[in-house]
Amino acid sequence: IEVAIRSYNIPFEWPPEVQQTVDTLKSEVLDSDKAGRIDIRHLPLVTIDGEDARDFDDAVYCQRNGSGWKLYVAIADVSHYVRPESPLDVEANNRATSVYFPDHVVPMLPEVLSNGLCSLNPRVDRLCMVCEMDINAEGSVLKSRFYEGVMHSHARLTYNQVGTILEEPDSSDGIQLCEDFADRLPELHELYGLYQVLVSRRKDRGAIDFETVETRIIFGDERKIDAIVPTERNDAHKIIEECMLCANVATAEFLSRHKLPTLYRIHEGPTAQKLENVRSFLGEQGLQLMGGEDPSPSDYQQIMADIQDRPDFSVLQTVLLRSMSQAVYGPEEKGHFGLAYEHYAHFTSPIRRYPDLLVHRAIKSVIYSAKNNDFDDVGIAADAQAPELRKAYKYPYDLAKMLVLGEHCSMAERRADEATRDVMSWLKCEYLQQHLGEEFEGIISAVTGFGFFVELADLYAEGLVHVSTLDSDYYQFDAAKHRLIGERSGKRFGLGDRVLVQVSNINLEERKVDLVLVSSSSKSRDKLRPKKGKPKSGSKRDSQDKRKAGERRKEADRRQGSDKPKVKSRNGARKKTERPVKAKSRKPKSSSELKTEEPQELKSSQPLKRKPSKLEALKSKQVKKPLKKINKVKSDANSEPVTPAIRKRKV
């Protein structure tokens, strides 16, 4: 982990001025800080998080409101303690995100804030930003308002506890939990009822639900890995996810309404090239993605429903995921393709995401500029009307600053993802060392010009079967159809094929797992042969065949991006060339590299000529400072993500 932190240039040391600021902070919220805020301490707000969570940045409460509901989402008020341009703010900006490694966190904020003053810990008063929403029986948010509040968490619940209470109330654990949290049962059941309506509305609007498998490491004695297990999601996870989505959408609409320069969460649709590739592959499977040149989220949702019961569902879903674009931060309001939202921003995790902190500051600028409640979407406490308590707040950001901040935060997010994946790859390699020489069943999870990756069953780890270890043949790489094809044998290795492999070598330094194919379910095709015997050597047909074979080999070499001769199999006559140490440009991204919440980004297609917008004009004039190059540790053998046990799953 230490190597990854330094290799990816992740800031991890606190500057002296930050430490000096932290030393002045009190352990509890001051009474003077509570003044001028709306008091919601009477509301039985609760936090619902993972078993090992330490920083609680959101609390929820739901009550009936006629035929619908009133939902309160209270978020830690980090902006009260982290003021613009302060030492804390400069360092939070520098880090931009908390980085969650297995059993280790590099936080965006010092622990005094992240686990203390800002964390919505149980049975203590905390400052918060509140999004209060009126939701009708169909799941539509009719009205929302934002305000500064002071709250008191009435319980710290876990996903497992709430899941058991709601899904298994008659089990022995369920009965005990219902007794322990009897006072909270009415609100939990209201949350569950609201969640079911929100899920139905999610389907109606066409949001894409990818069923990705995330993993975590279980450590034993002396920090040796005992197992790699999938993280289980129950309805409690989904309840919180839907509540956070409601608040994020309400936030984006609020910011759009007040025309503030801020950061939105942007996820654009797939590009023409990726659409062509995914449609080519789906066509081979007898499937079709509807929507023409501009498919909607509903079109993706429909094909996901079509493949739900197929045995190759996981593979098909992976291909669909890879056609998605990467979500980024920016001041342009482009909506969120995967979630099927026209407006979307991040509001719910300011303890661990800098864009959320910026959004809180934007909301506060509206609250502080409101006079005599002239905005119906903000709330102001009665004592806040007193002149001495009205705060002079100048919003310190413009469009140009937000453009730079958006690019920086997007970079920091990618950096964190790459670092955590690299650590997970190393840990998986270490774990597989005890299985050297063993055979495992697996599924081909990615195909490249130099071989194919195999996900080992029940181990949630990937390894590479290099093309040089295959039977004597030359293999052509068909990128559009995700397969390798033997020139002479016609043998095919494609995405989703089941194979039996042996773990042959592990390189911890390069994070590589080498596999050798034992057997496969891949298909062969008989090559067409002339009806009348072979042509004589030197004949016209013979020379044509040789020329075509040479052209095919050159084309294959070009596709692999190398001037070296094509690698022939180990059993062939040609001497085996050196194995590529790193083929970053050819490394496919697995579905797990994308958050369940948001798939990955694409560049937009060439626009028609038109007058540039204000933001586009600003972009063209702006001189961007190049980001510091990241000295990435080599990693080819695995593209599995990290989902550590202590990481909280938040939207």
Question: What key phrases describe this protein's structure?
Answer:
21 strands, alpha+beta, disordered C terminus, five-stranded mixed beta sheet, single chain, 16 helices, 651 residues
What order do the strands of the largest sheet run in, or round the barrel if closed?
1-8-7-4-3
Shape: globular
What is the helix content?
A: 25-40%
Termini gap = 25 Å
Rg over C-alpha atoms, rounded to the nearest angstrom: 28 Å
Explain how this protein is built.
By secondary structure, this protein is of the alpha+beta class. It has a domain at about 1-270 and about 330-425. It has helices at about 1-5, 15-25, 30-35, 85-95, 110-115, 160-165, 170-180, 185-205, 235-255, 270-285, 295-305, 315-320, 355-370, 400-430, 540-560, 615-620, and strands at about 40, 45-50, 60-65, 70-75, 100, 105, 125-135, 140-150, 155-160, 215-220, 225-230, 265, 330, 440-450, 450-455, 460-465, 475-480, 485, 490-495, 500-505, 510-520. The strands form seven sheets. A five-stranded mixed beta sheet has the order 1-8-7-4-3. It has a five-stranded mixed beta barrel with strand order 14-15-16-21-20. The protein has a three-stranded antiparallel beta sheet with strand order 17-18-19. The protein is globular and about 85 Å long.
